[in-house]
Amino acid sequence: MLRGTISLGQVAGIKVGAHWTSIATLGLFTLLLGRSLAGSYGNSAGVWLVAAVGAVGLLATLLAHELAHSIVARRNGVRVERVVLWLLGGVSELDAEPKDARSDLRIALAGPLTSLALAFGIFGVAVLVGTAAGQSVLDMLVWLAAMNLVLALFNLLPGAPLDGGRVLRALIWRRTGDQLYAAAMAARSGRVLGFALLILGGVELILIGNTGGIWLVLLGWFVSSSANAELAVAGLRHQLGDIRVRDVMTQHPVAVPAAWSVADLLGSPAIHTDHQVFPVVDTAGRPVGVVSWTDIAAIALPARETALVGAVARPLPAGARANEDELLSTAATHAVLRPDLDIIAAVDSLGRLIGVITASDLTLACHRSALNLPVRSARRPSTRP
Ligand SMILES: [Zn+2]
User: Fold this and answer.
1) Alpha carbon of 343 to ligand 1 centroid (Å)
2) N-term to C-term CA, the chain
3) What's this model's pTM, rounded to 2 decimal places?
4) Other CB atoms closer than 10 Å to residue 108's CB: what's the count?
5) Alpha-carbon Rg of the chain, whole angstroms?
6) I need a surface site. Which of 25, 37, 102, 106 has the fewest CB within 10 A?
7) What is the architecture, at CATH level 2, of domain 245-370?
8) Which protein residues have a CB closer than 5 Å to ligand 1 (ion)?
9) Is 66 designated active site?
10) How far is the CA of 102 from the centre of ligand 1 (A)?
């Protein structure tokens, strides 16, 4: 989901990354805590060191919150792509939706419960340690406990994409048995919540003149735009019903071997098609990337003889690969959330490329499905990717 993310390794078998914006979060919290500590105990290097440790501690507890979601998700049969820290905290990149309301509820509650437990745990440590390690360390521990309490409570606000929205979704799902309806309700609630946060932040910023309002404005913007995306996905899933990837994909796509030179591609029959983008495959026929005419045009004329297509191609992003048996709505979800996705590569059980779905294929499938027409026109030639 996020570009510009560096890997921090693995925790409990789950990949962990940090987006560059998490540096800003670290800096901001060091500044906020440091200014407050310096106000009480005087400006010294020691006070700023304690503030920096507190900020790192906060990011570590944010990570623990996300890892709790991910570990419970994995235990409930949902694959986890990775956990990423960014400007507004952490996100767990789950690969699929929970399969029942009970799993949905467990995954949603795991994060806030972890934050709550951390809040009490850290407060307990603060009580035990007392002023033995210095007054500023005690203040830092109490701050860390309070931040985790706020984190747990804020995340329980009932609107998607916050954890409370997921809880709401799970409860409506359990009561009605309708996952799509539940997801749409949670997303609508998230839209209202995001709007309310934006207004609150705006009031704090403009009327009261408190710069902390920026934080609420950012959060409100994030919550409402995520809720809108989730609403779009819910609508898409409703429209696409049980259509599979195989029903919509164009079979026998014109694929370009990664080992070809750019000159090979320019001399191949591919130039006689009207495609903008071609899937690039390895020697086993598995899709590894995409290459467009724009990518090719960027290669200087003399270099085209030697430049390999595999080196020019852009790697296939996560979510751009779908099994032919997969629900089209699941595959399409990734396309909606990632506007930079050129094509979805349909693969067989061995991971070999057997078809391609473009954005216009998706749009067409939605329209035809909404009109109760067969998703694929019988007259559509099978060679048009
Ligand atoms: Zn959470």
Assistant:
1) 31
2) 26
3) 0.71
4) 28
5) 25
6) 102
7) Roll (3.10)
8) 111, 155, 163
9) yes
10) 17
